[in-house]
Amino acid sequence: MGRYQAVDRDSVLDAAELIVRTRGIAALTIDAVAKAAGISKGGVQSSFGTKDQLIAAMYARWGTEFEAAIARQAGEEPSPMARLRAYIEVTYRTDKAEGDRAAGMMAALLNAPEHLRQFQQWYASQLDGIDMSTPEGRRARLAFLANEGLFMLRSFGFMKMSEREWREIYADIRGLLDDAEGRKT
């Protein structure tokens, strides 16, 4: 009788993310993930249950990694503005593979209302603590929205831009944050 082989959840999640990135969310099936990960369909199901639970695990891992990068950039007990600045810096440093990964996750979440709600709550929390009734708060919000728009336009391939353009636009976004924080540029 064969010995039970433990399933490496991260390897399975890597395989699932690769499918979403390269073939789209419609190609994400338990069977496709099992084949890509080199395990049985039952191995995927025993680790994640359903396709929706697999997507939830993909989102959770991505979110945890992104939040950890923000925390490293922001330092201990950052102000809301420092956290926003860290968020924008982490987004700026996102490479093509990470951008593709994020775009794939966003596409997956849009197709699942229960996951979309989590995403909406996460986005709503990104500006917590910033007073939108002030000009500074509004500039910070504008910097956040410009950051997200630029990232999505590039990640989804809606707008081609050179690395130089990417850097220049992020310099402008940082300038909005500098204005919001009363810094000299």
Automatic annotation (TrEMBL):
Start-end of DNA-binding region: 29-48
Any coiled-coil regions, as ranges: none
Swiss-Prot/TrEMBL keywords: DNA-binding, Transcription, Transcription regulation
HTH tetR-type domain ranges (all copies): 6-66
Keyword Transcription applies: yes
InterPro entries: Homeodomain-like_sf, HTH_TetR, TetR_CgmR_C
Name this protein carries in UniProt: TetR/AcrR family transcriptional regulator
